[in-house]
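I am writing to request your help with a piece of structural work I have in hand. A protein sequence and the structure tokens that stand for its backbone fold form the material at issue. Please examine both parts with care and let me know of anything in them that strikes you as inconsistent. The record follows directly beneath this note.
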Amino acid sequence: MTRHRGVALALLTVPALAACAPVPLDRAERQCLRDAELASRPRGEIAIGTGTGGPQGRFEVDISSDFLLQRDPSAVYARCVQNLSGLPPSQPLYTRTDWKG
């Protein structure tokens, strides 16, 4: 009976440990680009339209604490990549061709 509990515990622990594994560098850089963009300025969206229920609208704003604390987007990016992958970025944020900050 004890052996079955050990196997069950191991099966439950493996997915949790896999979530802590480092992310490949290229994926970490893509994910962290969004954090850097939000550190440079808020992002938002406004939608206005009409439907069967009459006029409708939607307003969304994304503001990061990094923006509010005026952190350098390049530092936010570098820290995020390091935390996710365990490696420094392959190139600085401001030299990326997809950086639109």
